[in-house]
Amino acid sequence: MVSRYQSKVFNAEFTLNLEVAHRQLLLCRVKLLVRYAKNYPKEAPTIEIAEHEKLPEEDLEKMEEIIEKEINTHLKRKTPVVFDLCQSLMEILNAFAEPRKKYIVKVDMNSKTMWDKREEDHKNKGT
User: Fold this and answer.
1) 116, CA 20 to 30 Å: which among 46, 65, 76, 98?
2) What pLDDT shows up at residue 106?
């Protein structure tokens, strides 16, 4: 029973969206395509960057290196990789986004948030 369940779960393909937002503004996003092998974690999954937004080429290259390194490390140990990989990639996304967060805070100090503007627009439509 367990092996049938595992073959259904581990012979799967899915996407993961990793993103960093601040004050409802998307700062950066990466969409990963994950394809599990039948013998996962003994056999490495295929993980690739399917889409990205607002990231420089050098950060994408770092992410691809990390994907390869994490997969190889976990393959040697025969341990699951996806959770640890997401943590490593989020560190890069957060490092990229951090200086941009400070800029947004300075710009938005005296302005309405997107939520306030949305609420105001909604009220104006009703009148």
Assistant:
1) 98
2) 47
